[in-house]
């Protein structure tokens, strides 16, 4: 048996329990009643409540009512007959120097066909041969069975054309520069970007998540102000500044404005403030410079001073895709870091072959393509200046010009009227369209593109039509 | 959450209380709580029982009727996001075994507590209040009801 203490404990427990039982006999009446009620409820719950779902059942009558009430909505809602989707203009055939719209031929001043390589028989032949040799697609990204010898050849040719160490090609012009910028500039780096850059560059800048400092279009003093501010900021925190990368993103010839960037001064500032220059030469490749090598050739600047030149193959070259050239050290980084290179299928071989042939034509010994283009641009510029009522925006040597109406008459509606009138006379021009989330929406304008094979008479005709349109619109 | 299991339960919250041994564990946990309270020297048995029921009912109310959604990513496309745990049990079917069990436990605890507190009035009131707090929201009339828009979202 346990010790006396234990025995006592057990005994005391027993008395406690006994006292509890005693108190049960003295329960207050309401409490007892309540407890009995609870016991009955519990028993009822356990024994009689069956599981059921919470669902509203509709009676037959209600179902019929709902069926009778239902009215089908029309498949096609009523729509204005002038909706653009109902009045589609149909293009037929090659969009070269002339376009056939809705059966009528007209001169094409709207597409970016600077050197008229679209529809060029040499290029077309080479492309057809490439289809017969390689098939149609390349079936893979560059890193996974998508690299074909023709890609490597094109890259080498581009690097050789620009006299740079290495080139890299992309399969889509828009994503070229939009992949390149985030490949180098990361979250805490600083980008000095011109406000007039085109949409692809804006998207690349946005994707990079870097700190962006926009400076006014082609305004070197504004850029200097930003650089000085950044310099002061850096001096306060030199350790952090050493880990920051700085880039200047500019275009050679601006698509939205038609003017050249002041490159020599920017290169000077580069060595003073230590940033790298990424230049997008989509429009100036093949059009500016003696042999079409772009703004660096025009200003006679050593291409090694520009860290990366990127461009699109979709404008002068007449193929599809884009490329970048620069030193091996810089360009090679993109082979693993550029999203558009690693994760998109590579350029179809027929387009690469077309691009190579276009380069062949551009590099021919006795070619005067670019010279002629610059001359014609200058002449067209003069002719356009002679027309009253238009504001010409752009360099005189630029084959891409923006036309605006003077003073407050410059609206998209009026410009569209001019475009429609020109179409009836056999000239196709277009109003430059922008997306709503552009960083700085340029003013409405007609974007004129000069084709190198336009004759003088055709340019005269263009000016005549523009003059008539102006008169018609303001009346 | 549903990684590595074969049946692909859309929201495990609906069925885990039906699992083997959960009811027994529940009861054992209540008693463990009670023994912990009993081992504190200055608490008498009656106070300990009242405390046990109070704590149990308050936790019951909070966990079943205040907390909404599930602590993991469910594959029911967010259907359970606005439902409290009580409403998620058995996917909303009322009067299942688990629900009846969970409704009866506070009542039984009330009986035991009343017995051990010798039917004292104050204890009765406290126990009654918390028991109602734990039992009343479990009735099907209150399914999906958010009084005064408290805890609606």
TrEMBL record, chain A:
Molecular function, one GO term: pyridoxal phosphate binding
Pathway note: Sphingolipid metabolism; Lipid metabolism; sphingolipid metabolism
Pfam families: Aminotran_1_2
Domain of life: Eukaryota
Enzyme class per UniProt: transferase
Record has Cell membrane as a keyword: no
Membrane-spanning segments: 29-48
EC number: 2.3.1.50
SUPFAM superfamilies: PLP-dependent transferases
Keyword Transmembrane helix in record: yes
A Gene Ontology biological process term: ceramide biosynthetic process
A cellular-component GO term for this protein: endoplasmic reticulum
Family, as annotated: Belongs to the class-II pyridoxal-phosphate-dependent aminotransferase family.
Protein name as it appears in the record: Serine palmitoyltransferase 1
Organism: Adineta ricciae
Lineage of producing organism: Eukaryota, Metazoa, Spiralia, Gnathifera, Rotifera
Automatic annotation (TrEMBL), chain B:
Compartmental location: Membrane
A single GO BP: regulation of ceramide biosynthetic process
GO cellular component term of the entry, any: endoplasmic reticulum membrane
Membrane-related topology note: Multi-pass membrane protein
Primary subcellular site in the record, as a coarse category: membrane
Record carries keyword Hydrolase: no
Transmembrane segments: 23-43, 101-119, 125-148
Keyword Transmembrane among UniProt keywords: yes
Coiled-coil residue windows: none
Keyword set, alphabetical order: Membrane, Transmembrane, Transmembrane helix
Family: Belongs to the ORM family.
Protein name per UniProt: ORM1-like protein 2
Protein source organism: Adineta ricciae (Rotifer)
